[in-house]
Amino acid sequence: MQSQSYHGYDVWGHAIPEQEGILQPERYAASGTITLGGKLIHASGVLGHFGSEEEAELAGLDWALAWVDAHT
After folding, report:
1. What is the largest CA-CA distance in the chain?
2. Cα(15)–Cα(48) distance, rounded to whole angstroms?
3. What pLDDT sits at residue 20?
4. Which of 1, 32, 38, 56 could form a disulfide with 44 if both were Cys (CB 3.0 to 4.6 A apart)?
């Protein structure tokens, strides 16, 4: 999970491991969360599927940053 403060909000990017067949490469679903003062403001659904944990986290973080930009 990656997080940062942005315009007073805390924004989070999440990577959720997907469990598929044992012989398939590991994949991660991305999601994002926005909090303010410790309270949930908004959370995304699954934003996409990625081949690495870092890519998924960054996609979630990018979504959260864009949400804040659109709502402030």
Report:
1. 45
2. 10
3. 67
4. 32
DSSP 3-state of 8 = coil
Is residue 28 within 8 Å of residue 56, measured between CB atoms?
A: yes
pLDDT above 70 covers a percentage of the chain that reads: 92
pLDDT of residue 21: 63
Which pLDDT value is given to residue 24?
Answer: 64
**Residue 23 above 90 pLDDT?**
no
Strands, E, within 1-72: which ranges? 2-6, 9-18, 27-36, 39-43, 48-50
**Both structure tokens of 39:** 């309270």
Mention the CATH class of domain 2-71. Answer: alpha beta
Residue 56 makes CB contacts below 8 A (sequence gap 6+) with 13, 14, 15, 16, 28, 29, 30, 48, 49, 50
